Structures are given as structure tokens and as C-alpha cells.
Amino acid sequence: MDERAGGVPGAGERARSGPGTGERARRAGSSPADARPVLIQGGMGVGVSGWRLARAVAMTGQLGVVSGTALDVTLARRLQLGDPGGHLRRALAAFPVPEIAERVLSRYFVPGGTAEDVPYRPVPRLGLRGSRARDEVTVVANFAEVFLAKQGHDGPIGVNYLEKIQLATPAAAYGAMLAGADYVLMGAGIPAELPRLLDELAEHRDGRISVTVAGGEGHTVGLDPVALLGRRLAPLARPAFLAIVSSHVLALYLARSAATRPDGFVVETPVAGGHSAPPRGRMVLDPAGQPVYGPRDEADTAKVAALGLPFWLAGGYGTPVGLERALAAGAEGIQVGSAFALCRESGLDPALRRRLRRRAGLVRNDPLASPTGFPFKVAALPGTLSEQDVYEARPRLCDLGYLRTPYEKADGSIGYRCPAEPVDVYVRKGRPAEEAAGRRCLCNGLLAAIGLGQHRADGYTEPPLLTLGQDTGFLTDLPDDHSAADVVAHILLGAHL
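-> C-alpha cells emitted (497 positions)
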């Protein structure tokens, strides 16, 4: 593969590295960021894969990944809590256009933090109509998260996005690139336009992608970096792009053309945490109400390998034996999520993380929970949205809207709807009530899982929603309060490489 700015760095023999090895093995160049990782730490949840976790993984020489989902609201809420430790203010002080960072700070920072009964101030909601305030906070938030993840080491840092949240992608990706993200990863859809978008943003050109609008076509969303910043900066390093796929069919589709070809793939199985692709063909549920997957849902790794692009396997591979299996299949290595979600540096609320570790085997692949329509892994934990009574007691509302679907109204204007919003509202927007049955508000639930749930003056607090992979056998080999470095050492040093 050409060693161009958009290619996966490195071209020699596979790098092997681990904590405590001194001089890390490298493919090429003078830093671990120039080497293909053996381990990719998954980009999980809203803030579970935060900068602290990604930084800890990158310090071992492996690929640390921050979750790029809803970083605007996480930044805004942490600033309203007073920015404990001053980390966000330190990152914003490094933003290349100080006046933009100052506007974000003045809008959201509360010295000492807001009172517990004061609701968080909202961020502008995603939409097709342009909003300078929304673009500014999105760009700044993604910059800050990647900037902090990259401090104090020379390891590689990536950022993970969901293709489903198309409306945020151009501004979010640009912010991460301003901070020097080495990789961009994207799943939950068909990320065919990402290679071109990253090329455009690296040159500070107006970057646009298509937006799926129900009942309409020809809609796009984009970002003009020069108009936003008020100046043209020097060209940015274009990060490598890894497409997260669940089948070799999608990998072949994306690799067919230079315009859509990623720099590599992460191939996930259905047991991976968070969202998973639905089974191919008619949906069949097992006695527990979970989707049944069969041979048609298994990716043919030989066909992926034949594409000549590097790939990593994910979902049930987070052990030394799993790594050996992946390497034997021709993969560069593996992506690991759940083991990192339960480590000390995870962004999960510490009390919830400790409780979840004790009950990690109780994870259900719920076909209804997510408003996206994709099956979603829900970890069973008392007091969370996994429980029916907690779900029913929560007032249905959609006040964040990251998973809303744009749709074209009869008059040609654009509306937005979400199956997790009030059922009568959803029906008035032209959809059947059955589509809303059982839907959880992932946006609010996942924010609550990292300690940033909305609280209101009447005492109401959003309940958390937790997700984890369904293969948790790795826990028996890790200390009770394990670190990210423990995970890396266990997998790399335990495998017979």
C-alpha cells in the first residue's frame, strides 16, 4: 500500500508491543504512531472511551480510541460542573482560534460548578440547518478530547464515530483532526463518504456528506473550515480511516472503489458490545427474545484478507487465545472493548462500573432498545433502564436528539422524529405506534452512565443505561480493579506470538 497521508501508517512486518518491553517494536518511522497496532481499544458508549482511557492504552504503544459520540454535550456538562482538574480549560487554551474557544467557555463554564438542582444548559441540537454555535462547540469538544488523549506520550490515538449520527460527522471529524487524531473509525452504517470527507477536511476545504432523509433525497451536511475559523491553517495530517463492518459483503462493497475504500477494517461479530447489525434475512428471536444469528451472519475473513487491506477482528476476541485466532486468520490483531470498559480508566461512573463488573455476564442483545433499529446490548443492573419498571417510570422525551431521523414533511420542510420520544408525538409525525414500543432513550441513558445525566429542579434525575459485550470470560484472568495496561499485558504477553 502507498505510504500516503491517507494510508495506514507503516508497511513492514507486524509490530509487537506491550507494557514493560522497553523499546517498542515498530513497523516504520520513529514513533509508535507510525506502527500498526496489534490491539485497538474500542470506542465505547458516550464518554466510556474518554481521553483518560485512550491515553492509558496509547501509552502502552497500542491504539487508544476516544468515543466521538455526543462530545459536545459531555464537554458542555463537564464545564458546567466546574471542569474539575482544569483539563478541559487546558485543552481549550490550545485551540488554534482562541476566540472560538473563549465563546464556548463563556457559554458553558461555571466556576465551582452548578448546584445539583440546576439543570444542565443544553447545546444546540443537530439539524440540517446550519448553526455556527453548534459547529463551534462540536469542533472544540472533539479537539479537546483528542488533545487530552495525546498528551504525554507518542502513541497512536483514534476517534470513533457512528455513521448513524451523520449530522455531526463533518464538524466532529474536523475538530479531532485539528488535534492530530491518527485514526478515525466508523461503524453503525455504511461509511462510504468518509475517505473523501477526511481528504477535504485535511486541506481545510468545505467537507460535505450525504444525509439520509426519510421521504426525501439530495440532502447534505457539511463544514467550511475557513468560514468557521476565519482563517486558513496549514494542511492537516489526514488520519487513517478504519471502517467497522460486520460482514465481508460490506467490506467488499467499500473496497471496490478508491473513492470509498478505507485504509483498513474492524470486523465485528454479533457478541460485540453496543450496537450490532441485525441478522441477515427474517428476524428470528430465541426464547429470551434475542436475535438469532446464523452462518449467513459470519464474516468470511478469508475474503476480507483477500482485499489486501489490514483488518482487525472484534467481538469475543479479547483474550490471548482470541488474539492468536485473529492472527491465524490473517488479521493485524484485535479490537477489545468490554475489558477496557471495566478498567480503572474507563469513563463509566465508578460505582456503576464496580457493580457492572460483578454482574458482567448478564447482557441481553435487545432488538428493540435502540431507536436506531439495530440490536443493542443492554447490561442488566438494578436501578437502570434495563429494568422494566425503571423504563416505564421514566417520562418519554427526546431532548438531546442525536439519534433522531430527519424526514421530509408533506410541505417539503424537514422534521425530526425518534422512536424513543412520546408515542403520540411520534405517531403525529407519520409513524406507527408499534415502532416506539420498548425503545430506550440511549442519549440520556448513556450520559447518565458516565455521571452526566440530566437533573431537574423537581428532583428528577435521568436513570443510566449500560452496555457491554456478551463475551466476558476475560474477567477471570484480570485483577478485580484492573487497569488498561493490565488488559494489554494480559493479552499480548499471554499470546504465543
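The chain has a mean pLDDT of 90.
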